[in-house]
Amino acid sequence: MEFGLSEDQKLLQESIRGTLEKVSPLERVRKAAEAKETHAADVWSALAELGVPGMLVPEAHGGMEMTLLDAALVAEMLGRAVAPVPFIATAVMAPIAIAGAGSKAQQEAWLPKLASGEAIAGVAIAEAASGAREGAGVTASGGKLSGKSLFALDAAKADVLVVADKAGGLHLVKGDAKGLAKVALTSIDLTRTLTELQFDNVEADALSAGDAGETFRRTVNAGRVMLAADTLGTGWAMIDKAVAYAGERKQFNRVIASFQAVKHMCAEMASELEPCRSLVWYAAHAFDAMPEEASLMAAHAKAHTAEVGRFVARTATEVHGGMGFTDLLGLHYWFKRIGLDRQLLGSPERLRHEAAAMQGWAAAD
Known about the structure:
CATH class of the largest domain: Mainly Alpha
Shape: globular
CATH superfamily of the largest domain: Butyryl-CoA Dehydrogenase, subunit A, domain 3
Number of helices: 12
Strand content: 5-15%
Number of strands: 10
Number of domains: 3
Helix content: 40-55%
Strand order of the largest sheet: 1-4-5-8
Distance between the termini: 37 Å
Order of helices and strands: HHHHHHEHEEEEEEEHEEHHHH
């Protein structure tokens, strides 16, 4: 069996990459980071014209109803460009949660807005997805939420929030709901926004249609695959930059790319990262085609790609020498994005434990 991309999928990636090269060069990323923008509205608008926000939204609600593999291909390009956009929360996790467990009214209220790019969604499921944190956690009672959720993704200026309670139940909360407080969290990655959400008897609509537990698992799995794909794209960008720099930088009247040690560093990065591509593709494919394997493969894809990503980030910076640490080159945007990808929705250590538990090799938490 040959497993590869279709011509349409190749064209999709080329279109996204070409658009990002025009609307989100390093200068635009730097501007967004320095201004602490929650997201680059102009970049998101350009992607909306290509239908990116509605990729996973059902056609009945104005979306394109594509596969998670298609979304992973887009995530890879967004990582390559370190694009400051709310893709994972707005275009992937929120649509999956609402389409999977939302009532007809909830779907009609939000899915068309998400598909068109009119609305931004935030996702607050860190505690339920990656383990309890001291003092954090959300409880649901009588249609209201109380407590605190940390590391909510793209929630700062979201129109709607998908929130998980301690039991794994999902809820919809309006971004300006009474009793909801948002506290910006400082992160190493300035291309994305993390927020602490504080709930004081905040009105919430439960996402309880269909199999809510399965929808929660699918939402987490999709987010993990997207983070793995983002790391894949970010890592390849760092390799390309390292190879290009090595071909220009001279020492002892020779470009450093001619030195065997530098050749080995670049080759090792490529040989470690490229196999991650098939792992990410398989995890994304399993999400739609082999649901019985989806959770295990999502955990493997994110855990392994995160480890390789850290190696690539460090090695690519070393190839650049002292210049790799300067703001002039901007290499740190890719370096830090890989670092945040590693921790969101579960560290490699936690995900390996989850994978072992799924296969009966370790006790479940």
